[in-house]
C-alpha cells in the first residue's frame, strides 16, 4: 500500500493544483460578529477611495467595467464605464445619477438598485441581511493580488440561494462576489481583475461620453402586502418586502400587466398579474438560477420570475388568489 501511495504522490500533487477552492471548512459566525463584518463591508464600499477594473459574468454573458470611486470626501462620487461591447457610462454624485447609453429612450433608476452596484452589494443594515441569511467564514484567497477572507451568506430557508463574498482583509472592500445556483454552481460573478486603493487623480472622475441625468425613484419597501382590488395576497415567503407596483404593457401582450416587485435586500422577485391566457398551462421552468412559475385561476393568471429557488416562485404564485 505504501508503495502505491508513493507512486501516486506526484499525480496527487498535480491534481491538487487544479482542485476547486470549495473544500473550505466553514464556521458559522454569531449574529454580533456577522453584523460587524457586514457593516464593515458596507462602509468600505461607501467610504473608500479606489480605482480598478472588474468583470461581471452572468450566464453566457461577460462584461468588463472600469470604476473609480471617491468616498472619503463629503460627497460620494463614482464613475463606471464599460470596456467592451456598446459604450455605456454611469456617474453618481451623491443621489444624482447621469448615464450614457447608445439608446435615447427614457430611463429611470430605482435608488435601491443604483446604490447596490458591485462592490456595494449589501443592504445598508446588517439586520436586513441576517434576518434571512447566516454568515459563514470559509477560507483565505488572493483576488487581484490582494488577500481576501471568503464568507458565505447561507439562506435560513428554502426561498433563496447562497452568495459568497471575498472581503479584502485590510480595507473590508468586497473584491469578488459569487451567487450560487440550485446545485451550488456559480451563476453570477463579479470580480476585480485589478484594484488600487487610496487617493488618485480626480481627472479620472470626468465623464468621457455625453451624459444625461436620469430620474431616480426612491423606494425602501414595506413589510406589509399591497392592497390590490382584484387579488387577495397572503402567506408570501418570509423576509421579502413589497417595493412597488407598476402597470405596464409588455411586448407581445395586448392588455396591460400589473407587476409587483419584492426584495429581501439581495434578490428581487417580480409578480405579473393579468387576465388568463387560454393556451398557457400551469408550469414551472428555469434557466440557470432564474426560476419562473405560471398559475391560472378563475380567469386570471399569475407569473412569478426571480433568481430564487423553485419553491420560492411557487410560493409567491400561490400567495395571489382572485378576490371572491
What is the secondary structure topology, with strand pairs?
Layout: H1 2-16, E1 27-28, H2 31-47, E2 50-58, E3 61-70, E4 77-82, E5 89-93, E6 96-100, E7 108-110, H3 111-114, H4 126-130, E8 133-143, E9 146-155, E10 163-168, E11 174-180, E12 186-197, E13 212-213, E14 215-217, E15 231-233, E16 241-248, E17 257-263, E18 268-275, E19 283-287, E20 290-297, E21 300-306, H5 310-319, E22 320-322
Parallel strand pairs: 7-14
Antiparallel strand pairs: 1-8, 2-3, 2-12, 3-4, 4-5, 5-6, 6-13, 8-9, 9-10, 10-11, 11-12, 15-22, 16-17, 17-18, 18-21, 19-20, 20-21
How would you describe this protein?
The chain is globular, with a radius of gyration of 22 Å. The strands form 4 sheets. The protein has a 12-stranded antiparallel sheet, with helices on one face. The model is unreliable at 1-5 and 7-21 (pLDDT under 50). It is built from 5 helices and 22 strands. The termini are far apart. With 324 residues, it is of the alpha+beta class. It has helices at 2-16, 31-47, 111-114, 126-130, 310-319; strands spanning 27-28, 50-58, 61-70, 77-82, 89-93, 96-100, 108-110, 133-143, 146-155, 163-168, 174-180, 186-197, 212-213, 215-217, 231-233, 241-248, 257-263, 268-275, 283-287, 290-297, 300-306, 320-322. It folds into 2 domains: 27-216, outer membrane lipoprotein receptor (LolB), chain A (Clam); 220-322, MucB/RseB, C-terminal domain (Phosphorylase Kinase, domain 1), CATH 3.30.200.100.
Amino acid at each position: 500500500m505504501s508503495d502505491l501511495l508513493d507512486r501516486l504522490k506526484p499525480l496527487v500533487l498535480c491534481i491538487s493544483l487544479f482542485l476547486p477552492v470549495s473544500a473550505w471548512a466553514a464556521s458559522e459566525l454569531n449574529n454580533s460578529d456577522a453584523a460587524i463584518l457586514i457593516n464593515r463591508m458596507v462602509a468600505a464600499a461607501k467610504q473608500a477611495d479606489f480605482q480598478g477594473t472588474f468583470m461581471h459574468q452572468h450566464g453566457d454573458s461577460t462584461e468588463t467595467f472600469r470604476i473609480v470611486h471617491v468616498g472619503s470626501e463629503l460627497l460620494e462620487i463614482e464613475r463606471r464605464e464599460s470596456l467592451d461591447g456598446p459604450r455605456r457610462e454611469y456617474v453618481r454624485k451623491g443621489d444624482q445619477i447621469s448615464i450614457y447609453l447608445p439608446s435615447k429612450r427614457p430611463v429611470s433608476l430605482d435608488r435601491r438598485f443604483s446604490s447596490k452596484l458591485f462592490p456595494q452589494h449589501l443592504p445598508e443594515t446588517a439586520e436586513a441581511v441576517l434576518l434571512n441569511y447566516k454568515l459563514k467564514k470559509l477560507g483565505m484567497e488572493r483576488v487581484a493580488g490582494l488577500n481576501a477572507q471568503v464568507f458565505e451568506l447561507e439562506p435560513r430557508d428554502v426561498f433563496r440561494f447562497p452568495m459568497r463574498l471575498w472581503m479584502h482583509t485590510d480595507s473590508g472592500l468586497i473584491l469578488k462576489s459569487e451567487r450560487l445556483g440550485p446545485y451550488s454552481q456559480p451563476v453570477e460573478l463579479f470580480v476585480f481583475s485589478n484594484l488600487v486603493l487610496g487617493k488618485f487623480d480626480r481627472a479620472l472622475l470626468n465623464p468621457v461620453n455625453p451624459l444625461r441625468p436620469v430620474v431616480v425613484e426612491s423606494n425602501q419597501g414595506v413589510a406589509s402586502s399591497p392592497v390590490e382590488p382584484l387579488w387577495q395576497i397572503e402567506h408570501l415567503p418570509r423576509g421579502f418586502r413589497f417595493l412597488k407596483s407598476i402597470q405596464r404593457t409588455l411586448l407581445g401582450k395586448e392588455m396591460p400587466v400589473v407587476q409587483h416587485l419584492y426584495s429581501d435586500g439581495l434578490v428581487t422577485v417580480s409578480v405579473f398579474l393579468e387576465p388568463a391566457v387560454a393556451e398557457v398551462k400551469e408550469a414551472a421552468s428555469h434557466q440557470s438560477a432564474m426560476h419562473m412559475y405560471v398559475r391560472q385561476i378563475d380567469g386570471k393568471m399569475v407569473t412569478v420570475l426571480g433568481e430564487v429557488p423553485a419553491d420560492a416562485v411557487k410560493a409567491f404564485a400561490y400567495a395571489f388568489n382572485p378576490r371572491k
